[in-house]
Amino acid sequence: MSLETLTYLVVGLSFALYIGIAFASTARNTGDFYVAGKHVHPIANGMATAADWMSAASFISMAGLIAFMGYDGTVYLMGWTGGYVLLALLLAPYLRKFGKFTVPEFIGERYYSNTARVVAVICLIVISFTYVGGQMRGVGIVFARFLNMEIEWGLLVGMGVVFLYAVLGGMKGITYTQVAQYCVLIFAYTVPAVFISLQVTNVAVPQLAFGSEVAAGGGYLLAKLDQIVVDLGFAAYTESTRSRVDVFFIAFALMVGTAGLPHVIVRFFTVPKVRDARMSAGWALLFIAILYTTAPSVAALARLNLTNTIQHGPVGEETANLVYAERPQWFKTWEATKLLTFEDKNGDGRIQYYNDANPEFAERAEAFGWQGNELEVDRDIIVLANPEIASLPNWVIALVAAGGIAAALSTAAGLLLVISAAVSHDLCKGVFWRGISERGELLIGRISAAVAILCAGYLGYNPFGFVGQVVALAFGLAAASLFPVILLGIFSLRVNKYGAIAGMLSGLVFTVGYIVYFKGVFIEPLAENVRENWLFGISPEGIGGIGALINFAVAFAVSALTREPPEHVRDLVQRIRVPK
Fold this sequence. Notes:
The protein has 580 residues and is mainly α. It contains 23 helices and 2 strands.
């Protein structure tokens, strides 16, 4: 069976499974639509949370980040996993005890203000749309390669599937769909990792292969990889090139951003009891760890295989570089997506892949007759291309396609439902139309989810960065806007509505402004995104950490200058914090 046929079959069966689950668990009321009726088992909720949280950034982009960034890419591992621990310990049980549907609802009641609730909705929508843009790009990449579609058609198919199980099933349908998606994505991630680990190191466990010797000789995996990339002018794979300040703030932004993500927080409202929220968090951490401990090995093996394919001999020898006319089939198929490109700058018909930004190595390369790096590889393709580069069986490649789509769609559905709930429950019912019936609220929720899907498709077609980068920016926005007021809402009796509103707005405006200034979102960047121009040497991916500190400082300062919260609000905080 051809790869294309097999991929259509595997992906089609997975879609049929998701849609079947959605129809079997269609939401009948707002409780089902927003929080799955609050009767999801902790293990099932742990799987759903893991799938919701491990987006296309985790499945598709994270190993690609580590593969090309080396040691510096591990900051994403530290930030995302550390943030989940913060969420599980500091926020999840208390928010479940509060017992409402959404994060803006908690903020509105805790800070006794509809204005605070509306500001929280604005923050939530900015975060969610930034995040969902990365997910839909992931969907487009997978469809473009494996189903031989143009990206826009792939996005339309993905949007249609999300529409069916998110709009019809609501949180109830999404939860059980995400359980299936977790099983698909984790199987699709670990199976090729085991194959390639055996192939390269003769060790079946990827986590152990990471520290093992290469079967073909040449020493340990990381030492061999260090030597290969250094020979091509890149920094050593195990060497850090970022400043400690930037690493700290990226990790900090990702950690507190994880703990402030509304689509993950809402998962803890779906279980029956506070104890179940804690158990869900523990199960989710276990399920997440399976992928996150495998990713560094996948990244190293992928970089080794890619580099060895292109540069299969000593640097400088005429026959060491791959002849373009003899390139393997995987190279041709990824070229068709324009996510891998070759430009023959010196006209020798061979592929020169090296770091031409390194002046010392570029000078050496000129002596070989090289005139610049000729190969550009989008880091988002590395996990998807890895099984093809390693010549694994077609069924493994098809499985990876299904896993990539599952990862992107699971998070996209959770984000779209959060946007839907913010519009229907927090704005319409909570602020502007208090007398709306449950049926009317459910209808508005479904309409707003459908509109959100259309906007998400547009962002997927016109992304403002690669998947991991876009997701990191979304985490920074969550860190700068929602996390501080949620944390203070649980643990501070003194912070009032004025402080919360001022804190959210100041953190959000500062962070969005910095990202637009250096990255550009829908507009051209206003400044060149280079390290010398960053504030305190902090990259846009880490600036959410500064935004969070600004949020905390403004919230405390404004609260200190205004009257303290009323007695019933202080009682509410005490009830949330103190167990029965």
